[in-house]
């Protein structure tokens, strides 16, 4: 990992983990992939290792990230999907070349070829976004209950009532705030 950057917040769903590379969108935003090399690092830890990333590809990746975020947010809120964002997701999906592989434990993994590049990795992320936004996968798109986060996440809990994109960050922060309010009431309470 590159030193001096915020840690990645990795989840189990590739597309929403990718949108999580910009967190706290409604507070003090935290950019977790501020450079092309940092994007390469994120792709490597996400199982999509590539060797290089041009400035133009980096901008296309960030454009895809924002398109997925806008589309997943609309889907989770049961609003109409933004046509321009859907077009970006579809374009990136078509541009990629990767193979889905089945593991012995019945999970799907994406395999990039030796000559694969960043566009192939973006194609995998776009395809993953399509599968969750279209409802192909078992789960529900939801938005984090944290007012400063509001990240889209894919809830696969049995009850589909998860409230936080990540219990260790947003959920924990909200629990601490509630405890602080109970133990340190405001004057006049």
- SSE order in H/E notation? HEEHHHEEHEEH
Strand order of the largest sheet: 1-2
Largest beta-sheet characterization: 2 strands, antiparallel
Beta-strand proportion: 5-15%
What structural category do the secondary elements indicate? Answer: mainly alpha
Assembly category: single chain
Structure notes:
The chain is mainly alpha-helical and 189 residues long. Helices cover 44% and strands 11% of the residues. The chain contains 6 helices and 6 strands. A two-stranded antiparallel ribbon has the order 1-2. It has a two-stranded antiparallel sheet with strand order 3-4. Helix 3 runs parallel beside helix 5. The longest helix has 22 residues. The protein is globular. It starts with 13 loop residues before the first helix and ends in a 6-residue tail after the last helix. The model has no long low-confidence stretch (mean pLDDT 85).
Brief summary:
The chain is mainly α. 44% of the residues lie in helices and 11% in strands. A two-stranded antiparallel ribbon has the order 1-2.
Defining traits:
two-stranded antiparallel sheet; 44% helix; single chain; 189 residues; mainly alpha; 6 helices
Helix-strand layout with pairing:
Elements (H helix, E strand, L loop, with lengths): L13 H6 L2 E2 L6 E2 L4 H10 L9 H22 L6 H13 L3 E4 L5 E4 L6 H16 L6 E4 L8 E4 L11 H17 L6
Antiparallel strand pairs: 1-2, 3-4, 5-6
Helix pairs in contact: 3-4, 3-5, 4-5
